[in-house]
Write a structure and sequence with these properties.
The structure is a homodimer.
Chain A lengths: L4 E4 L10 E6 L14 E16 L7 H12 L3 E10 L5 H19 L6 E8 L6 H14 L4 H10 L8 E9 L2 E10 L12 E6 L5 H14 L4 E2 L9 E6 L13 H24 L7 E9 L2 H12 L2 H8 L5 H9 L11 E4 L2 E5 L2 E2 L4 H7 L4 E7 L5 E8 L3 H7 L3
Parallel strand pairs in A: 4-5, 8-10, 9-16, 11-15
Antiparallel strand pairs in A: 1-6, 2-3, 3-4, 3-10, 6-7, 7-8, 11-16, 12-13, 12-15, 13-14
Chain lengths: 410, 410
């Protein structure tokens, strides 16, 4: 099979033929700062199909509700407007009207229907959106949008909050003599306005993809990538992943395509999501460690996930990672209270490939090796429950004093 | 009805007629420290009925397994041996043999059956118990035990780990002309050996109480007190609450007792548990705030509990409490992802009695009042879901940089 080429830190969306991007400053934060980019526009003149996944939080921000409504109406779609600095969350009917007005302004400026635009926001909760600033910025974005790498980079920057760097990826592969693209940009779980920890990711492809096939492909990729990361266990009101497929290449991919093409496309979407998810974790709020928590041999996938999440979200476990302390007792403790089937006498725990516990028995003579392993910025802890064949992999971070101090107040 | 008198910071168990206590040093931590008390013996010459509640962690320490076994055998019971400094957890068959040997030694010294003793441990996970030290200390405890306040105080001190103070309570009331007692001692969720966060509590009463009535009374009290607190959301392998009833007063309380007496006794046990649970939270690891999270108007008790726990265990919420930041957006966010039925447009949030959100609408003009409220060491946040009548109350703490640094390594 033709290889996928995954390139990180690209301009992202503008790598996909037919997509234009803008990133402009409009001082959404109302800090008299007209340098910081805070509004992104992603645009395809050619009509797109789209798919999306959204936060499961019962408190959904109005832009999320609007995206879900537009997606349900089925398109065609032409773009995404995304701002940082204000989440437009807990803002009720007024917030929804503001999100709608944003889509309407883009539509009017570009002579398209309002339902062809998605609107996404990230930043502070419970503050009215400064609409005059946003709409002024949107006009500018419509004028300035373009296809150069600089346009792509600016767009990727404009959605950041407390992220320390832009997060982009471009996946390409050749099929039937033609090069195709799936590219994306994301922002991570940080909070320069300490009311939010939102994850936004936008993807684009030049394939023509029927809506249901696109949704299935995206949902599967999101389940295995974005939904398998944790920084602080707090799910935002605004989490959104969207993909637009503009058909620029003239090639379709769907249920009836050759298996090789379907697999390549699904793999490309997966790889793009995986790369962006990894970037989000690696740039988590004041983290110092990225830890892959692998649970294998569980009686069910649900059990494997419960154990991985109990470990990845345990304050004691995360604090010990920060301290570079190979404290396997806390891993066993968290696994034990996860609510999964677990028998201590069968449990194996290891750091990378070095066992800390085998069949419930500690291996204290290997402590020097664990200590060495946990000193790295990135390592793996594996728990084998020996109760079945189900597995789960969670990418987690440590918890630092820096995180607590950063988030303790506005 | 005759009033209950709740007195804090008493000698605890020795306030109950017929109970003897010892607290001795035996250097369980193996630090050449023969000053620190680390072994407690609670003893009643008169045979007792007993009841207990234990950790739901799938990884249970051997002493927990032994307590459960002895409890199932039905008694009669004569006492509790509890050490700090070593949790005897993740120690397998050898750990169980060590716990059994401890009960056997107490039984041999006091000419009683091994099954009449409970054994409890708290401290580091995964280390073999230094049995020669422990047994030597136990001999000394058997010799030194007594009924003075000093004996009670020493016992209460011997079970502490990173607690900054002993935790005791005595509840008394007069019934039918006779004074009765329910008293207790506890240790909190701290970790001077940073592998554990164990909660132990021991209660005693001079009533004669049939086993099943005692268990029912204790289980109800524990569900509403110890099980409604959180410091870091980590459930230990060793959590244990035990109550002994020695019948010293010659008065029985059970299913067939007059209603007044049943209610008084249940209330006394509840008050004793409540006081000890409160002391555990207030002395949580490096905390600066105790926050009562009240959820009312939920569709079900399960929903109320989910919302309260999501809030009380959210890193973002806890960090904001530390920063004295009335960040109600984080409360709404955590409530939203709790997995409970919740409609944003119905949600009220308040700090003490000052609203922050009414029916989904923020009340920003009251911010100066919220700011004042969260400056106190103790305050209440109330969420009214307006979806039913169910309620839940959780006593939670903030999360501090001190906690992270304290627990980051051994």
């Amino acid at each position: 099979m033709t290889p996928l080429i995954v390139t990180l830190d690209t301009p992202g969306i503008t790598d996909v033929p037919g997509f234009e991007v803008a990133g402009v400053p409009c001082d959404i934060r109302e800090k008299q700062d007209l340098k910081r980019l805070d509004l992104a526009l992603l645009f395809s003149l050619r009509p797109c199909t789209a798919a999306g996944t959204f936060t499961k939080n019962a408190v959904k921000a109005p832009p999320v509700l609007l995206c879900q409504k537009h997606l349900a109406e089925g398109g065609p779609f032409h773009g995404i407007i995304a701002n940082s600095g204000n989440a437009n969350a807990c803002t009720g009917a007024e917030g929804l009207a503001d999100a709608q007005a944003t889509a309407q302004r883009a539509a009017a400026s570009l002579n398209l229907k309002p339902t062809s635009f998605f609107v996404c926001s990230t930043g502070r909760i419970g503050q009215p959106m400064p609409m005059p600033r946003l709409l002024k910025g949107l006009e500018r974005a419509v004028t300035e949008k373009g296809r150069t790498p600089e346009h792509g980079n600016k767009g990727a920057s404009a959605i950041l909050t407390s992220d320390t760097r832009a997060k982009t990826v471009t996946v390409s592969f050749t099929y039937d003599g033609k090069k195709h693209f799936v590219a994306g940009m994301a922002k991570g779980a940080g909070m320069i306005q300490p009311n939010m920890a939102t994850m936004l990711a936008f993807l684009a492809t030049d394939f023509s993809v029927p809506r249901s096939f696109l949704q299935k492909t995206l949902s599967e990729a999101v389940a295995g990538t974005f939904n398998c990361i944790t920084v602080d266990g707090d799910m935002s009101t605004n989490d959104t992943v969207l993909i637009l497929a503009n058909g620029h290449s003239g090639v379709s991919v769907g249920d009836k395509s050759p298996r090789e093409l379907r697999v390549l496309f699904a793999e490309a979407v997966w790889k793009a999501c995986e790369a962006l998810a990894d970037k989000i974790v690696s740039d988590g709020e004041k983290i110092t460690k990225v830890v892959e928590v692998k649970v294998v041999g569980a009686a069910s996938s649900e059990d494997a996930e419960k154990v991985a999440r109990a470990i990845g979200n345990s304050l004691l476990v995360k604090s010990s990672w920060f301290g570079e302390d190979p404290n396997w007792g806390r891993l066993a403790d968290a696994a034990g209270y996860a609510g999964a089937k677990l028998i201590e006498a069968k449990l194996d725990i290891s750091y990378n490939d070095t066992p800390a516990m085998i069949a419930g028995k500690p291996q204290p003579e290997l402590k020097p090796q664990w200590k060495e392993i946990v000193r790295a910025r990135r390592f793996t802890v594996t728990l084998n429950l020996h109760l079945g064949k189900a597995t789960f992999r969670l990418l987690a971070t440590d918890l630092t004093d820096g995180y607590v101090n950063y988030n303790k107040s506005e």
